[in-house]
Design brief:
Blueprint lengths: L3 H28 L3 H12 L1 E15 L18 E14 L8 E5 L2 E5 L3 E16 L10 H10 L1 H35 L5 E5 L2 H7 L12
Parallel strand pairs: 4-6
Antiparallel strand pairs: 1-2, 2-5, 3-4
InterPro entries: DUF4230
Protein name: PF14014 family protein
Pfam families: DUF4230
């Protein structure tokens, strides 16, 4: 009987230790962060992210049509000046709108993510112009003030041509944005051995496959 008590306590201690280990292991499994949770947390922290940019170019021919009485100065040539207006378009994605329903774990090593809608904007502050062809040699060149005045009068036309350029490159910008997002988001889980496949939202996916039916035409 003298050996039974220590044996009983030893058995009890071992059982208690095993129960503690099982409890801790179960708790650890419950609290383990999944790749989906990691991706959601990291991506949402990026908020509104610029994913792609592209130049917008449109050509305009400017003519003040100040050719003297009965247009006699036309005999010496014209003051027509061709300029190229260059601006920038950017594709943004607000990743703070990403939700758990947009991320699916295909298997242990692959996640599928659908992006929130992409916002494609023309950057107004980046507009500049390049003179491609100046007035004929016998006529005076347009001054900067004259160019500015003509552009102000044709502002609606310039805006329309730039918007057409934006629509023309929009499908490619969406594709570039998807690739950029896949690279950025994939780097977050590379150390975990997880690959992220990124898709556009259904509406953006459809637009990215669109073949524009027109090309912006220069004004005359």
């Amino acid at each position: 009987m003298s050996f039974s008590r220590p044996y009983t306590w030893l058995t009890f201690s071992v059982c208690l230790l095993l129960l503690t280990l099982v409890s801790c292991r179960g708790k650890s499994a419950e609290e383990r962060t999944t790749p989906v949770q990691v991706l959601l947390t990291e991506a949402q922290g990026l908020s509104r992210l610029e994913l792609a940019t592209s130049e917008l170019r449109t050509t305009l021919t400017l003519d003040p049509k100040k050719d003297g009485l009965f247009g006699w100065k036309r005999l010496l040539g014209t003051r027509e000046t061709t300029i190229e207006i260059v601006s920038q378009a950017s594709a943004y994605c607000d990743l703070s709108r990403l939700t758990a329903s947009m991320v699916h774990q295909r298997n242990d090593s692959v996640l599928d993510l659908v992006l929130p809608p992409i916002e494609v904007l023309r950057e107004m502050e980046s507009i500049h112009r390049v003179v491609q062809r100046e007035a004929d040699p016998m006529r005076s060149r347009l001054t900067e003030n004259e160019i500015e005045e003509i552009l102000r009068k044709q502002e609606a036309k310039v805006t329309r041509f730039l918007d057409e350029s934006l629509q023309r490159i929009r499908p490619q910008l969406l594709l570039d944005a998807r690739r950029s997002a896949e690279a950025k988001l994939g780097s977050m889980l590379r150390e975990l051995g997880v690959t992220v496949h990124v898709s556009l939202s259904p509406s953006d996916e459809a637009e990215s496959l669109r073949n524009p039916s027109y090309t912006p035409t220069p004004s005359s």
